């Protein structure tokens, strides 16, 4: 079975590459120093600093592995080539929540970049999936575990 492609914007790709570089160069060095310092304190069986440092090291290595896997299967969307007639990954959309009469803005990104608190929703989320392929003026229904919600597409721009 082929692995799922990780859709990223160019900024998302840069952010992941920068994080990976920081983890490999800086964080690994910092954690190695913490482990060395904890070992110097003697008995490792009751050394909380050593245990904490080893846990942190495991977390760092897991994140490095996760980022490398994401990058290995990355498909980068060139925002300059995004069709602005329809909503696609790499678009910034303004929508109207029909029930609440409230305008909301989102960037449509791949699932690895999604952060709804920062205004980025995944193309795989209920709302993101409902918006894909729509045009200005279209009304979509996003089906969620909390019910169905209607939104009207007001604007489509580049992210």
Describe this structure in words.
By secondary structure, this protein is α/β, with parallel strands linked by helices. 38% of the residues lie in helices and 28% in strands. The chain is built from three helices and seven strands; from the N terminus they run E-H-H-E-E-E-E-H-E-E. The strands form two sheets. Strands 5-4-3-7-6 form a five-stranded mixed beta sheet. Helix 1 (10-39) runs antiparallel to helix 2 (48-72). The chain starts with 5 loop residues before the first strand and ends with a strand. The relative contact order is 0.17.
Radius of gyration: 21 Å
What's the overall geometry? elongated
Helix content estimate? 25-40%
Query: If helices are DSSP runs of H or I spanning 4 or more residues, what is the number of helices?
Result: 3
Mean pLDDT: 89
- Main sheet: strand order: 5-4-3-7-6
| Count of beta strands | 7
Bin the strand percentage: 25-35%
Order of helices and strands: EHHEEEEHEE
- State the separation between the terminal residues, measured CA to CA: 32 Å
Summarize the main sheet: 5 strands, mixed
Any descriptors?
elongated; 159 residues; single chain; alpha/beta
SSE topology:
Elements: E1 6-9, H1 10-39, H2 48-72, E2 74-77, E3 91-97, E4 102-109, E5 120-122, H3 126-131, E6 139-144, E7 147-158
Parallel strand pairs: 1-2, 4-5
Antiparallel strand pairs: 3-4, 3-7, 6-7
Helix pairs in contact: 1-2
In short:
With 159 residues, this protein is α/β, with parallel strands linked by helices. It is 38% helix and 28% strand. It is elongated, with a radius of gyration of 21 Å.
